[in-house]
Write a structure and sequence with these properties.
With 117 residues, this protein is of the alpha+beta class. It is built from three helices and three strands. Helices cover 31% and strands 37% of the residues.
């Protein structure tokens, strides 16, 4: 049985969030939450919040009434790029360079069966 949670338009670069997502892929929910809570990266906060949401989604299913949150695993986690805000910064000799402010879409799927590696 699976449950899914999606966070869209997270105001953080996907490259930075993927570093955190790679740390918890395939782990049990308890150890993944422990890793995320003590990680010093800024991307750990939205991923931890989203993981808690996916676990809550699983617990609210009727079939999951017999499950405990400790029995769940992070089956899939991936980060896609969202839209970009484009801004300009003044440079020397009257020129301007583009600044890209990136967004991320984060998806987590938790399951009661460990993911095969």
């Amino acid at each position: 049985m699976e449950a899914k949670a999606v966070a869209r338009y997270v105001r953080m670069s996907p490259r930075k969030v993927r570093l955190v997502a790679d740390m918890v892929r395939g782990k049990s929910v308890g150890s993944a939450l422990n890793v995320l809570h003590f990680t010093q990266k800024r991307g750990a906060l939205p991923v931890e919040k989203l993981l808690r949401s996916a676990v809550a989604n699983m617990m609210n299913k009727e079939e999951a009434s017999k499950l405990e949150p400790e029995d769940l695993f992070v089956k899939t986690i991936f980060v896609d790029q969202g839209p970009m805000m484009k801004r300009f910064r003044p440079r020397a000799m009257g020129r301007a360079t583009m600044i890209r402010k990136r967004f991320s879409h984060i998806t987590i799927i938790v399951s009661d069966v460990p993911a095969k590696e």
